[in-house]
Amino acid sequence: MKSKCFPALLLFSAATATSAFAGDWEGGYVGGQIGYGSGDFDLGTLTDLDTDGAVGGFTIGYLWELGDWAVGPELQYDFSDLSVDSGGATGDFDGIARLKLRAGYDLGNALLYGSLGFAYTNFDGLSGVTSIDFDDPGYVIGFGYDHQINDQWVIGGEYQYHKFDDFGTDGNDVDFGTLHIRAMFRF
Q: Which of 21, 75, 104, 167 could be a cystine partner for 111, CB 3.0 to 4.6 Å?
């Protein structure tokens, strides 16, 4: 009899603990993300190239609660393995920085959100076609889902679309998307 009551007691205490913090999104957080990115270069008259690879880095942000909504800034940086290797042309993105505003709907212990902001990346290489080394700003737009595990830990997923127009020079455009799994510690 004791063995049947123990799982029920654990389930009840987990459900009760969850309701104590559900919907409390206000405050600061730090964390990290890991994922995958892919995209393409439109280099005007030169050539079109594709890129894909791993991305991962850190996140820091703050959320304020406004009724059923949570809004706040977030800073992300990803180290990346987004590289180009096509027909003798090689190069890679060294990193991607983002400063964005997140706004989400509070679903209790879940947050469904959208984001919009500035992105900055540096690209080294592209030897074989022409020598290109660029550090350029662009914009990022995304959406995601965060879930509170307890009052301090949050896990989630996020998709972000990046656009860099006139990358280094007029006519060079770069588009890529990233898909992340995130984990954050709230304080």
A: 104
C-alpha closest to that of 140 among 121, 116, 107, 169: 116
Distance CA 11, CA 28 (A): 29
Residue showing tokens 């190239």 = 49
- Looking at residue 28, its amino acid is G
Which residues touch 95 (CB under 8 Å, ≥6 apart)?
57, 77, 78, 79, 80, 121, 122
Burial of 160 (0-12, 13-18, 19+ CB in 10 A): buried
Radius of gyration of the chain (CA): 21
The predicted structure's pLDDT at residue 103? 98
How much is the pTM?
Answer: 0.79
Q: Reduced to 3 states, what is the DSSP secondary structure of residue 15?
A: helix
For residue 9, what pLDDT is reported?
A: 43
CB within 8 Å of 76: residues ≥ 6 apart = 33, 57, 58, 59, 96, 97, 98, 100
Quick one: pLDDT at residue 64? 97
